[in-house]
DNA sequence: ATTAACCTGTGACCTACCTCACAATAAACT
DNA sequence: AGTTTATTGTGAGGTAGGTCACAGGTTAAT
């Protein structure tokens, strides 16, 4: 886990062994079983989480209807970022789709890290940039694509998700009902 | 303009007069008239732009249909961030809805600034975080809200936009046709 | 001042997607 | 092994929102 995380950082920028030990000391570890919650609505958000192993979903719950905001598998980050950055109660839930192992970074430790190690400010800056660009692409997909095109975009962007996530949740991620997703492409075949 | 921009930075974190002069030396200025393009599809993106005065739209053009990705008015940033950060050709257009005055930051100058002034890495980190959170909210709005609710969210979030932007473009921003936007709320009144 | 271009509303019709209901298979617990 | 509990497919019918067409009002350009 520790070495996986080091690789994750070095993918963005180089760090010394010594710096990494210092960085690592700011994290804690956490293990969760399938179906367990990492975050629940109204929780106070302790940390941002990096997934070492497993798979999770972040979703907004509208009386029983789950709207998937984000998935996170190995090497991805997940949290309720609005609640985390602004220290407000969570409005979403984060739940494990598989047994998961996480490392956790409190907001205080993140800020401390960014102040004492300028390269970490750059690391998180570049990560946030990437997240912003990815979000913009998803928004554009809602604007210019229909359900079938959005599903196709999702499958080409994250092919491994299809193997691990039920269709119901993929449907929710692209903003259609599971019935509609199940029927995509059928129409063409019949004519 | 210069002092407005200083205020903009100080809104996020404090800087010395000396640091600001150094920061300011990394920017250039640009003026554009209404209807002029700041960015066009396939352009190589020189800069990220901060709006000192005016109003612009960033949109994806789908044979004549404009899909609004972003507006930007005084104090906001705008660019094609995918193209800017990854130095690829632009896939969107940015055009002025009003005469505008901008200050411009090349990617090279941004990175130089972040390396030489750690506080600037933090500034852009916090800005990117904020952009990410705002994008997530817009995505959630697509997932859980209908056209009327999305419009209502837009109007409460950015009331000043309504005064300055034609309804056609607001419709496009929330992902509905202008006809549908024009009819919102009518149904209830008649029953 | 006149023409042209933009902006907004509205009627009529159409369609992509939703909801509810039922069924069959697969996976997970005791 | 047997019983819940997920997951997926599919039919039937409904609705939010799209498209096309026309019109009046406003703004901008010659």
UniProtKB/TrEMBL annotation, chains A, B:
Protein name in the entry: Cyclic nucleotide-binding domain-containing protein
Positions of the Cyclic nucleotide-binding domain: 30-115
Signal peptide annotation: none
Species annotation: Algivirga pacifica
Top-level division of the source organism's lineage: Bacteria
Source taxonomy: Bacteria, Pseudomonadati, Bacteroidota, Cytophagia, Cytophagales
């Amino acid at each position: 886990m520790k070495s996986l995380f080091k690789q994750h950082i070095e993918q963005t920028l180089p760090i010394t062994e010594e710096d990494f030990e210092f960085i690592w000391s700011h994290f804690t570890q956490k293990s969760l079983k399938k179906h367990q919650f990492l975050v629940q609505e109204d929780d106070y958000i302790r940390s941002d989480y990096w997934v070492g192993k497993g798979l999770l979903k972040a979703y907004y719950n509208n009386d029983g209807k789950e709207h998937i905001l984000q998935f996170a598998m190995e090497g991805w980050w997940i949290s309720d970022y609005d609640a985390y950055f602004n220290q407000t109660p969570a409005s979403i839930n984060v739940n494990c789709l598989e047994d998961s192992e996480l490392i956790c970074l409190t907001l205080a430790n993140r800020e401390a890290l960014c102040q004492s190690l300028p390269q970490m400010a750059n690391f998180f800056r570049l990560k946030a940039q990437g997240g912003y660009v990815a979000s913009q692409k998803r928004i554009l997909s809602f604007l210019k694509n229909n359900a079938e095109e959005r599903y196709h975009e999702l499958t080409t962007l994250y092919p491994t998700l299809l193997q691990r996530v039920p269709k119901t949740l993929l449907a929710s991620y692209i903003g259609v009902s599971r019935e509609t997703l199940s029927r995509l492409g059928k129409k063409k075949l019949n004519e």
